[in-house]
Design brief:
This protein is of the alpha/beta class and 276 residues long. The chain has a single domain (2-274), classed as Vaccinia Virus protein VP39 (Rossmann fold, 3-Layer(aba) Sandwich). The protein has ten helices and nine strands. The strands form two sheets. A seven-stranded mixed sheet has the order 4-3-2-5-6-9-8, with helices on both faces. α6 (136-145) links the parallel β5 (119-125) and β6 (146-157).
Length: 276
């Protein structure tokens, strides 16, 4: 695994990414979710997997770390009843502003207010990696609220080959320079190898059903965009627009992906079942 840090002032705002949705003011109410649903349908590699497992509808689905509820809206579009929990007031207030009827709870994802065995499925996307003690406490809590054989979809950052050989060494060099300058660093996340995630899930009584890469379909790139921004943050560089690289950048991304999407994808996406 790779333990990632960023500049202190950046880590303090990591839960506030919704504040960058400047387009939201022109899409009030449910129109806000229409924009997100369009993005999910067009760009997210995870969409076909969710359609396969949740497309029949009629399930109670929990999103742990739901943010503003974009994936909740997608699960409900598939005919399910979605519930969300998040410990940050900001994104929940945005969600309630756009859809007051959403089933939302403000709570610690490690100790949710739900009874044992009440959900058919649960989803955690880019949340588990933020716990410095590891993800197993979160996984046990999700296991608790799932029914026997309930589905658990979990996505975490993947310590892919491009990161191991290019991005991680660059970040380590940035950390060393930053510390020499007497400036603070804050822990942000772990990036996991498959063997590590296999062990975490097995230890918390989940049966692994499928493992697939998580990223965007070209011309967008989630993983390489994040990598560029992480290294660039130490030079006060911010890539605009998000996830888009233009003709040259897209050609570079496509060239890297010719060696396999696993070489540069942002995340590793597990489909599992709760053994009880």
């Amino acid at each position: 695994m790779f333990k990632q840090y960023l500049r202190d002032e950046i880590t303090k705002g990591l839960d506030e990414t919704y504040t960058e949705e400047h387009w939201a003011k022109d899409h009030p109410g449910r129109a806000y979710y229409d924009v997100h649903l369009s993005t999910i349908e067009r760009h997210e590699m995870a969409t076909p997997t969710f359609r396969e497992y949740l497309g029949g509808g009629g399930l109670r689905v929990l999103e742990s770390g739901c943010g503003t509820g974009r994936w909740m809206a997608f699960f409900e579009k598939l005919g399910n009843r979605a519930f969300g929990v998040d410990d940050s007031w900001g994104p929940l207030s945005v969600a309630r502003e756009h859809d007051p009827g959403m089933n939302l709870a403000r709570a610690n994802a490690l100790a949710t207010p739900f009874r044992d065995g009440v959900f058919d499925a649960a989803f955690s996307s880019y949340v588990a990696e933020h716990f410095e003690d590891g993800p197993e406490t979160l996984f046990r809590e999700i296991h608790r609220v799932l029914k026997p054989n309930g589905l658990f979809f979990v996505v975490v950052p993947f310590d892919n080959a491009f990161r191991r050989f290019v991005v991680n060494p660059a970040l380590r060099a940035c950390y060393a320079v930053w510390r020499l300058r007497g400036k603070g660093l804050g822990f942000t996340e772990f990036r996991y190898a498959k063997a590590e995630m296999d062990r975490f899930l097995t230890n918390t009584n989940f049966e692994i059903v499928r493992v697939v890469p998580d990223d965007y379909f070209l011309p967008w790139s989630k993983g390489l965009f994040v990598d560029l921004c992480d290294v660039g943050s130490f030079f006060h560089f911010e890539h605009k627009p998000p996830y888009e690289f233009g003709r040259f950048g897209t050609a570079v991304v496509a060239g890297i992906q010719r060696f396999g999407i696993w070489r540069s994808c942002e995340g590793i996406f597990y489909v599992t079942r709760a053994k009880k």
